[in-house]
Structure formats: C-alpha cells, structure tokens
C-alpha cells in the first residue's frame, strides 16, 4: 500500500501538470476483426474523433462519480485532467477497462490521434502518452485495488504486439511497454511468479458494462436550431449523435458532413463505427437498426443522392472489403454496400 500511495502521488503530480483549466471549466463493444496485413493506418485529418475537454462531457471535479456510468470517452477526458483523489479513482478504472477490453481501448486511443492536453502551456503533453502512462503504472499496483490476473497484462502486450506489428496501434503498444518498463524500474517488479502459472490465451475483448460513447444528444449540448447548424467543428462522435436524432434540414447537413469525413478518412470512420458495437439510438424507420447501421445508411444515402455515386465510393468499399474479410468492419462494409444499392435503385 505504501508503494501504491507513492505511485499515486507521483502520478497525481504528473497529471496535475496537465490539469490546466480548459477553456470552459450494456452492450459488448468488443471488436472481432482480424487486423489485415496491409490495412491503411489512421489518417491525418483536421477534425477530432473524440473531445478531450472535461466540460464537453459535463465533468466537474467536485466528488467522485459512479464509474460504471462513465463511457470510455468520458473516462479518458476525466483521467487527463484529474489529480489527487480523482486520479486515484479514475486511473484504476481506465486500467480495468484496458484489461477487460484491450482491443477496444487500443482503438479508442488510436482514434484520439495526436491531441494534446493543456495546449499552448509549458506543461502541454501528449494525451495518448499520458493515458498510456496511467494504464501501465496502474498494472504495477493492481493488487492494491483490482483483482489481478497475474499474467494478463503481459499476455495482452505479447498478443497485440504480434497482431499489430506496425501502424498507430503498434506505436501505442510501444508507449505502453516503455511506460510499464519505466514504472518497474522506479517501483520494482509487481512480484508475481510467472513460473507458477500456466499461460492462457487472451480473449480479445470481454463483454463489458460500459460503452465507448454516449448516444444522448444532451450529453453533448446538442441543440437543433438554425444557430447551431455548422457541424464542421464537431468531433466525429458528436456529429454522429447529432445525425442520429436529427430530421429535415438538420439531417441533410449531418448527412453531407458525415459523408465528407468518410471519403476523407474511411479507415478512421470505419473503426469509430466498429467501436459503437450494438448500441441503438432511434433505430431508424423500423426501430431495430443499430446506431452504426443508421450511420452507414446515412453515408450511403449521401453518396447516391447528393453526390451521384462517384467511383471513389465503390473503390473504397472494394478496397476495405479485401482488407477486412471478416469481423465487425466487414459487416459494416456489407451494410454500406447494401444501403448504397437500395438508395441507388431509389434515386436513379
């Protein structure tokens, strides 16, 4: 426990350096994709996928929240600006999420991109690096607050380094490993005996009691009026939620912006949609569509109706269907193709 308190003080100080005030003070989401050998990496874009600003999630550091009610996106933002008792509660929860659903958390971190916290300040830091430090350091002290599967972190690292030998996720795994090694050097080994345990296969993701993002418009401060129709500044998560509950002219604008982002960065958008799992919003006309399926329909509709089905859209579907022969992204691509065929038959 003393070691844990020492680490917590160190981690709190590190995170406090990042905690400059911002401008404004269950379904199984597990993925089942086999990473393709030659898949495109996450594209560099001028828009965000997730906001990292606590105020955008209504986060206030007054009392410790109920962690199961937090989405992964909320938890990430909370960790980046929390210190003291807030770090003590949030960092172990982030570690638990990683241990239960490593593939989901790795793709969440990859979708954060190159964002920093405390931008423009002397203590500006890379957001993903900071979150990786929290996860890796938490593993050293896991026994203090989380029933530890002694080998699971090491097995996760070994398995995913083989699955992702290059690209952004490979960089994140290298960050995790480096931070873990540095924490061991500072604080000593976790102290478990690997020889006494039989190696077990890592399940890519377990069923979890949390979601990656909320699908409630109120959680993003979304307002449907003519003064709030510029969606270009929206992070992708907010744009998708805006569309899911929009109608009329509001839906048309969201259609077009979502389609533009898909055409600009299909790999990023597909992986974001994969993280939504089986979450549902309004369910489309049948009331039975998942949110991801509704968003696929919007993208396909925009291509067929607003943009007259240029060959680039079909080429993207064909390219990524070869890269992803099975798994959740393959299903999304099939949905995009089906919805596009239906829309094309309707409008042409």
Task: Walk me through the structure.
- This protein has 348 residues and is an all-alpha fold.
- It is built from 13 helices and two strands; from the N terminus they run H-H-H-H-E-E-H-H-H-H-H-H-H-H-H.
- Strands 1-2 form a two-stranded antiparallel ribbon.
- Helix 3 crosses helix 4 and helix 8 runs antiparallel to helix 9.
Please provide the count of β strands: 2
Query: What would you call the shape?
Result: globular
Counted by DSSP, the helix tally is 13
Which structural class fits the helix and strand makeup?
mainly alpha
Main beta-sheet annotation:
2 strands, antiparallel
Query: Would you tell me the overall average pLDDT?
Result: 82
What is the N-to-C order of secondary-structure elements (H for helix, E for strand)? HHHHEEHHHHHHHHH
- Order of strands, main sheet, comes to 1-2
Q: Can you tell me the residue ranges where pLDDT is under 50 for at least 5 consecutive residues?
A: 1-30, 192-196
Q: Name the beta content range.
A: under 5%
End-to-end CA span: 68 Å
SSE topology:
Layout: H1 2-18, H2 72-81, H3 85-100, H4 102-112, E1 116-117, E2 125-126, H5 127-140, H6 152-163, H7 168-187, H8 236-244, H9 248-264, H10 266-275, H11 291-306, H12 311-323, H13 328-347
Antiparallel strand pairs: 1-2
Helix pairs in contact: 2-3, 3-4, 3-5, 4-7, 4-10, 5-7, 8-9, 9-10, 9-11, 10-13, 11-13, 12-13
């Amino acid at each position: 426990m003393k070691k844990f308190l020492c680490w917590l003080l160190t981690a709190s100080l590190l995170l406090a350096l990042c905690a400059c005030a911002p401008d404004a003070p269950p379904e199984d989401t597990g993925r089942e994709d086999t990473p393709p050998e030659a898949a495109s990496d996450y594209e560099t874009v001028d828009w965000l996928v997730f906001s990292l600003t606590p105020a955008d999630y209504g986060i206030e550091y007054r009392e410790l929240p109920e962690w199961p009610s937090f989405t992964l996106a909320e938890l990430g933002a909370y960790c980046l600006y929390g210190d003291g008792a807030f770090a003590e509660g949030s960092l172990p929860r982030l570690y638990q999420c990683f241990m239960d659903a490593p593939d989901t958390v790795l793709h969440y971190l990859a979708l954060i991109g190159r964002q920093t916290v405390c931008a423009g300040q002397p203590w500006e830091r890379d957001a993903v690096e900071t979150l990786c430090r929290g996860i890796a350091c938490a593993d050293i002290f896991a026994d203090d607050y989380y029933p530890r599967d002694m080998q699971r972190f090491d097995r996760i690292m070994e398995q995913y380094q083989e699955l992702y030998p290059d690209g952004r996720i490979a960089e994140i795994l290298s960050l995790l490993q480096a931070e873990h090694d540095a924490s061991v050097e500072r604080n000593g080994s976790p102290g478990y005996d690997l020889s006494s345990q039989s190696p077990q296969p890592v399940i890519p993701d377990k069923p979890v009691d949390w979601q990656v993002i909320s699908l409630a418009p109120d959680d993003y401060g979304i307002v449907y009026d003519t003064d709030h129709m510029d969606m270009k500044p929206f992070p992708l998560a907010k744009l998708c939620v805006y569309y899911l509950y929009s109608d009329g002219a509001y839906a048309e604008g969201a259609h077009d912006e979502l389609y533009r982002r898909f055409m600009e960065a299909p790999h990023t958008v597909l992986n974001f949609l994969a993280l939504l799992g089986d979450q549902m919003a309004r369910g489309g006309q049948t009331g039975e569509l998942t949110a991801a399926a509704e968003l696929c329909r919007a993208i396909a509709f925009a291509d067929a109706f607003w943009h007259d089905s240029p060959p680039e859209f079909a080429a993207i579907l064909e390219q990524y269907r070869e890269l992803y022969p099975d798994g959740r992204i393959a299903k999304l691509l099939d949905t995009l193709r089906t919805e596009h065929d239906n829309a094309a038959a309707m409008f042409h």
